[in-house]
Model the fold of this input.
Amino acid sequence: MAEPVFRRLALIGLGLIGSSIARINLDGRTLAGELVACARTPKTLARVAELGIADRVEADPARAVAGCDGVILCAPVGSFADLAAAIGPHLQPGAILSDVGSTKQSVIRDVGPHVPDGVHFIPGHPLAGTEYSGPDAGFAALFQGRWTLLTPPDGADAAAIERMAEFWRRCGAMVETMEPGHHDRVLAIVSHLPHLIAFTICGTADDLADESRSQVLKFAASGFRDFTRIAASDPVMWRDVFLNNREALLEMLARFMEDAQAMARAVRWADAAYIEDKVERGRKIRRSLIELKQA
Ligand code: NAP
Done:
C-alpha cells in the first residue's frame, strides 16, 4: 500500500469539494494519514463529525493547521484573505498550502502575502462540480476523469508541485499546470460566463408577469431546464467567483454580447445561413466534448 500523500492534512471548508476529498480518503487513506476538517458553522462541523468523514473537526483554522504537512483551502474564494491571515503564522516549515478555488490570480493575490518562508504554496482548481453544496453533497467519484489545474507561482518547489499532482491523481483526476492569468481567462469562458448567463436568464424569466412565469415553469423542458440546473448553484461561491475574476469575465461577456447582437441581427434579417451555421458549430462542440469524455 502506498504511503498517504500527507501525514496530516487539514481541509478548510467541508462543502461539496472538501467533503468529496474527505470521502476519497476514507477508502485506504491514500491522501492523508490523519484528516482534520475545519468549517465555519457549528452545524457543518457537527454534520461532518456525524458523517465520520474526518478524524477530527476544528472550528478554529489556526488550530486545524497546526502540525499539518498539507493544508487545502476549500471555502469560497472571498474568504481566503482572512483565512490565510489566520493560518499563516501556524503553518509548519516544509508544509504545502494549496486550495481548490475557482479563480487563481485572486487567490495568489490574497493568500500569497501570508505564506511564510519555507511553506510551499501550490494553488489548484479541480474542474469538477455539481450545483449542490454542503458536506452532504460530496461524493468520492467527483473528480474521476476530470481535470485539475495547478497554477504554481514562478520558482515553486518542483517536488511540492509533484506531490499535489500525485494528490489529485489519487483522487482520479488528470493534472496539468497552467499560468494563473491564463487559467482565469479559460475558466471565464468555460465556466464563469455560462453561470452568469444561467443566473441572468432565470432572473429574466422570473421577472415576467405571474401568468407567463407559471407557463415557463410548466413547459421548462425546452432548454430552460438546463439553465435552471446551473443556476441552482451556491450564491456565496458564485458571488465570490464573479467578484474575483472581474476582468476576464467582463471581457468574455463583452465578446459574448457582440456575438449575441450578431445573432439578433441574423434573426431580424432572416439570415438563415448564419443561424444554421451557429447551431451547427454548437453541435460540433458538443460532439467533441463527448469524444473527450468531458460531457
Ligand atoms: P460549499 O459546498 O458551499 O462549501 C463551502 C465550505 O466552506 C463550507 O464547509 C463552509 O462552512 C466553508 N466556509 C465558508 N466560509 C468559511 C470560512 N470563512 N472559514 C472556514 N470555512 C468556511 O462550497 P464548494 O462548492 O465545496 O466550493 C468550495 C471551493 O471550491 C470554492 O472556492 C469554489 O470556488 C471551489 N470550487 C467549486 C466547484 C463547484 O462546482 N462547486 C468546483 C470547483 C471548485 P459552513 O458550512 O460552516 O459555512
Summary: The CA atoms of residues 265 and 271 lie 8 Å apart.
